[in-house]
Design brief:
This is HTH cro/C1-type domain-containing protein. With about 425 residues, the protein is an all-alpha fold. The protein is about 75% helix and about 0% strand. It contains 23 helices and no strands.
């Protein structure tokens, strides 16, 4: 927690070069030593830098001076966020910003930025929380400074660090940081969140056996704390875990529990996801009418909430393909295309259209569409979308005795299988 980090952050946010900032104050090499933390500038230099950076002198000169009233407000804010009392937390955030437009103590400024990013993340402003942590906390401190923070803030630092690594898909690093946070945490609600996130990590790593106990621990904590929205989240996760484990009855039970609570709590965001998940369960059970009913309910709610219903449309198209309902499939394809957000989405639809054309004996269209899709997914390293389809095309050409083309796709299929397994 060196003043050099604050100076560097100010300089970069002002788009000033090191040379420009040093000119008229110190030599360029001297300034570089200041910014790297190798030299502690005196107050005269700090005042000159403050003037050039257009901030109050106190912001650079009094960086070691803590404010007792501010510390009390920071602790209140931490407790409100931990207990998910976001309206009260929002009031405290505004109060701190109004009373302290600049926080002189670099130590307390880091704590404030840490809480601000934590507040955003816990109140489901995920992108904003990650952005604030990366842009405001990272530049001011390094992990070897964390033991200088109060115990409760150390917990939050490791929690947010774990979240950042999770969203970068560095799941093992994220797991380590969550374990560190779990070993320090006292707040029960936050303990539930850490267990939930560890379960989510193991879900991403396809280790369902390890994920379920963490999810159950999170569920028991949230039930004890009467955190009903979080209870719904965990039931939804457990449903997903059992679904991946092909325990469809347990999956259905947990999704239905999640849905009941989500509806009672008027949680539209999670309700639309649960409806989609139940559609997947009934699809896997062969209950086609029930499956379609839940997918359409999910689509309706997503549209009502201005969310993209592409995933539910894709599942409906798969059902229509399996049931040879080609007229319904073609009509739904047109609707689904309106919600494609990327080329990947378009090519996933093209693969379904290819399979439909195969069933309709339009073999040239089948070949063209599948080849185009495979080429795109291969170039983009999107192996999971090619997992079985490449071998299917190889088999198709083998049946036609086009052995050279078949061999080409079998070779690609082996490569895809290898790369897909490495990524999982």
């Amino acid at each position: 927690m060196h003043i050099s980090n604050r100076i560097k952050k100010l300089r970069q946010s002002s788009s000033i070069t090191r040379k420009e900032l040093a000119t008229g104050i110190v030599s360029y090499s001297h300034y570089c030593n200041i910014e790297s933390g190798n030299f502690l500038p005196n107050n005269d230099i700090l005042r000159a830098l403050a003037k050039k950076l257009k901030v109050a002198e106190e912001y650079l000169v009094r960086y070691k001076e803590d404010d007792e009233q501010l510390q009390d407000l920071l602790m209140q804010l931490l407790n409100k966020i931990n207990d998910l009392e976001f309206e009260e937390a929002d009031v405290l955030l505004l109060k701190i910003k109004e009373k302290y437009p600049l926080i002189n103590s670099i130590y307390q400024e880091i704590m404030f930025y840490l809480l601000e990013s934590y507040y955003c993340y816990r109140s489901r402003q995920i992108s904003e929380g990650l952005r604030k942590f990366k842009e405001d906390v990272f530049p001011l401190m390094e992990e070897n400074d964390v033991d200088k923070l109060p115990h409760d803030f150390e917990v939050i630092y490791y929690y947010m660090l774990a979240i950042v690594e999770f969203h970068k898909e560095n799941y093992y690093i994220s797991y380590e940081k969550f374990l560190r946070s779990l070993s320090l945490v006292n707040n029960n609600v936050l303990k539930g969140s850490i267990n939930y996130n560890i379960a989510l990590i193991f879900y991403k790593l396809h280790n369902i056996h390890k994920a379920i106990p963490y999810a159950v621990t999170a569920l028991n904590i949230y039930l004890h704390e009467h955190q009903w929205q979080k209870v719904s989240d965990v039931y939804n996760l457990l449903g997903g875990l059992y679904y991946e484990n092909k325990e469809l009855i347990k999956a259905e039970e947990n999704f239905l529990k999640a849905l009941d609570i989500a509806k009672m709590q008027e949680m539209n965001d999670i309700t639309e996801r649960i409806l989609n998940n139940l559609g997947m369960v009934y699809k896997a059970q062969g209950k086609i009418n029930q499956s379609l009913d839940y997918f359409f309910k999910s689509i309706a709610l997503k549209k009502e909430n201005n969310h993209n219903p592409y995933i539910a449309y894709h599942s409906i198209l798969e059902i229509y393909l399996e049931q040879d309902l080609f007229e319904d499939l073609m009509m739904t394809l047109e609707e689904a295309r309106e919600y494609c957000e990327s080329e990947r989405d378009l090519y996933r639809l093209k693969m379904i259209e290819a399979k439909m054309n195969f069933k309709m004996q339009n073999y040239q269209v089948y070949e063209d569409y599948l080849q185009e899709s495979i080429s795109y997914f291969y170039e983009q390293n999107l192996w999971k979308y090619m997992d079985k389809i490449v071998e299917e095309l190889g088999d198709y050409y083998h049946e036609l005795r086009k052995y050279k083309i078949a061999a080409k796709y079998y070779k690609i299929a082996l490569e895809v299988a290898k790369k897909w397994s490495l990524n999982n």
